[in-house]
């Protein structure tokens, strides 16, 4: 993975890490969505196509992520677009999502090493996060449904830096969706487009200047 444009080896060391949850600290969301579609006997392209091109589906997703729509209401209305049963729709879509252990461990090691950390995440239900892990991972938390806004709103990243106790220019921001990186870059953050732990962790080690793999930290 190449660093973001404008990042060089002599770039200032960053002291804070802002990071997304779904698809970064978990396994791939889209793989889980695909598996759900196969199980529900619907075309996987239909699901993603709704979110990308259907105004009604986009409206429902935005309302869910900003907390304006509860899960049951989202399921009832989105299920009609997919022509599936609403009960358990979100649970089914997320059934294959698990923590990405190397990435979670990397954040834990960064936090323990004194790097300021914050979660900056668009949510599909606040209860879906492992809140019992937050104290050992994050100095601050920004979850869209609790804020009433969602990425890529600039305020989400500003809140992330503020709750991490850092200036934006001192931060690295990590996300699996490239368009969510742009506001962070505009604020002066270094950015990492996450595709796998194997590429993200070495890049974070370079930017933060701390070992983020258990063997390195031993």
What does this structure look like?
The chain has 218 residues and is of the alpha/beta class. The protein folds into two domains: 16-27 and 99-217, Rossmann fold, CATH 3.40.50; 29-93, no CATH class. Helices cover 47% and strands 11% of the residues. The protein has helices at 29-40, 44-53, 55-65, 71-82, 89-93, 101-112, 134-137, 144-147, 154-164, 182-186, 197-208, 214-217, and strands spanning 16-19, 116-121, 140-143, 171-175, 190-193. Strands 3-2-1-4-5 form a five-stranded parallel β-sheet, with helices on both faces. Helix 10 links the parallel strand 4 and strand 5. Helix 3 packs antiparallel against helix 4 and helix 6 runs parallel beside helix 11 (197-208). The two termini are 25 Å apart.
């Amino acid at each position: 993975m190449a660093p973001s444009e404008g990042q060089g080896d002599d770039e200032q060391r960053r002291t804070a890490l802002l990071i997304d949850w779904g698809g970064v600290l978990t396994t791939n969301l889209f793989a889980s969505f695909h598996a759900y579609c196969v199980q529900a006997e619907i075309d996987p392209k239909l699901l993603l196509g709704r979110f990308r091109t259907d105004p009604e589906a986009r409206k429902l997703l935005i309302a869910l992520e900003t907390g304006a729509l509860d899960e049951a209401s989202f399921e009832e209305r989105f299920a009609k677009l997919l022509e599936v049963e609403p009960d358990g729709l979100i649970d089914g879509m997320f059934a294959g999502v698990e923590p990405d252990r190397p990435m979670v461990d990397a954040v834990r090691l960064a936090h323990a090493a004194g790097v300021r950390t914050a979660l900056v995440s668009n949510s599909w239900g606040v209860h879906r996060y492992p809140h019992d892990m937050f104290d050992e991972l994050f100095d601050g938390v920004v979850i869209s449904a609790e804020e009433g806004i969602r990425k890529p709103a600039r305020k989400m990243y500003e809140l992330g830096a503020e709750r991490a106790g850092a200036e934006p220019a001192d931060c690295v921001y990590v996300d699996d969706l490239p368009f969510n990186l742009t506001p962070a870059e505009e604020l002066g953050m270094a950015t990492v487009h996450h595709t796998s732990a194997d590429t993200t962790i070495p890049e974070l080690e370079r930017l933060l200047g701390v070992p983020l793999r258990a063997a390195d930290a031993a």
